[in-house]
Write a structure and sequence with these properties.
alpha/beta, Molybdenum Cofactor Biosythetic Enzyme, Chain A, Molybdopterin biosynthesis moea protein, domain 2, Molybdopterin biosynthesis moeA protein, domain 3, 7-stranded mixed β-sheet, 6-stranded mixed β-sheet, about 20% helix, elongated, magnesium, EC 2.10.1.1, MoaB/Mog_dom, transferase
């Protein structure tokens, strides 16, 4: 569906729109890059992580003590430190002192813990070996070529450490999508308190912060407020597309006298992927695609101008789109148990801001959740999903969309 004319089709169902956005992102997934291991945190594996050697690569002591051969008492004939390759232990009733992580000498038959050893006074030690083996065998953790982590896995400190431990210097990963924001509306102020018919722009600070949490690299600064003319809208979007994979715009998604987004998309040759979604709040959201001269798809996400509606659009359309672009799986919906009733919205899906009480395992709907309000958002953990034709009754378990928070901020 092109943007040459105003779409007259029915709104897309919320779940269907979410899936469509993910598939569009997957089809345009960013080409992988090779990065040093330490620079890959937060990105997505574009290759399976397999072992380059057995893990461990050689037998290592798991305790501080003595590697021994034969029966006690043992004559101490040397020392093995981590990072050194020891000589074979060949004599009967001999031992070498060994540190945790030290390579077990060929010929050693056991490791005696230092705290369970006793010096006999004549250069020998004695003690009882435990029945459990006190060293790590090669391949105990993984065999050569074994799959450790599949492609599509988010890279976190655990993956970084695992990759380094089996010899990776670089990782092949999907890079962060580049995102830009264009804020529409002559009525917006960027400084000072609202008044005299003008309101403070809340989305200029809000949307970039959320996009960063969704894994984007942000173009410097939000551009706006953009003048309410078609020419200004076209120029603002075109300039953003030059350096971004995703351009988010705020406002102008309806068809009022100063809503120029749809005509601007038509002038840019954009193709609608989704134009309006059967969800409340946030119904007039959209995503369009523009194919550049290089043949690569870039996306324009039209977020409603009301702040909470814009947030619903980010959670509904932009988050799954970005997951696809980043080579990740579609974010799975969790579930929450409602502690209070949440009304339905008829034929529309209702995304209701809720605060999750982790101790009680329940979610309570927030107050102050009008489309233009952000007060409820400040204490919310995400959205309870009330499917069309139903209402959320206390005790009901319903789908849950978490807000894109930083690690450690989840309830």
């Amino acid at each position: 569906m092109t943007a040459e004319t105003v779409a007259t089709t029915a709104p897309t169902a919320w779940g269907e729109a979410r899936n469509q956005m993910y598939e569009a992102g997957r089809a345009a997934a960013l080409a992988p890059v090779e990065l040093p291991v330490e620079e890959a945190d937060g990105l997505t594996l574009a290759q399976d992580l397999v072992t380059l050697t057995t893990l461990p690569a050689f037998p290592t002591s798991s305790v501080d003590g003595f590697a021994v051969r034969g029966d006690a008492p043992w004559t101490v004939v040397g020392k093995v430190l981590a990072g050194h390759s020891p000589a074979p232990l060949t004599g009967d009733s001999t031992a070498v002192e060994i540190a945790t992580g030290g390579m077990l000498p060929p010929g050693a038959e056991g490791v005696l813990r230092v705290e369970e050893s006793r010096h006999t006074g004549d250069g020998r030690i004695t003690g009882r070996l435990r029945e459990t083996i006190e060293w790590r065998r090669p391949g105990e953790e993984a065999e050569l070529g074994e799959l450790l982590v599949p492609a599509g896995t988010p890279v976190d400190p655990g993956v970084l450490g695992l990759a380094a431990s089996c010899g990776y210097d670089t990782l092949r990963v999907h890079p962060r999508p580049r995102a830009a924001l264009r804020v529409f509306g002559d009525e917006l102020l960027t400084q000072g308190p609202p008044g005299d018919g003008r309101v403070r722009d809340a989305l200029g600070p809000n949307v970039p912060a959320l996009l960063r949490r969704l894994g984007c690299q942000l173009a410097p600064g939000a551009v706006g407020p953009v003048e309410d003319t078609l020419e200004a809208h076209v120029a603002a979007i075109r300039s953003a597309l030059a350096g971004a994979d995703l351009v988010c715009t705020t406002g102008g998604t309806m068809h009022g006298p100063v809503d120029h987004l749809h005509p601007a998309l038509a002038e840019l040759g954009a193709e609608y992927l989704v134009n309006t979604v059967a969800v409340r709040p946030g119904f007039p959201m959209l995503v369009a695609r523009v194919v550049g001269d290089d043949g690569r798809a870039r996306f324009i996400a039209g977020l409603p101008g009301n702040p909470q509606s814009a947030l619903v659009a980010l959670a509904s359309l932009v988050e799954p789109l970005l997951a696809g672009l980043r080579g990740r799986a579609l974010p799975a919906l969790g579930t929450v148990e409602l502690a209070e009733p949440v009304p339905g919205r008829g034929d529309f899906t209702h995304l209701a801001l809720v605060h999750v009480d982790a101790a009680a395992g329940t979610a309570r709907p927030m107050r102050h959740v009008g489309s233009a309000m952000l007060r409820g958002l400040a204490q919310a953990h995400g959205f309870a999903v009330i499917v069309p034709g139903t209402s959320g009754e206390p005790g009901a378990r319903v789908p849950f969309v978490p807000l894109p928070l930083l690690p450690g901020e989840r309830p």
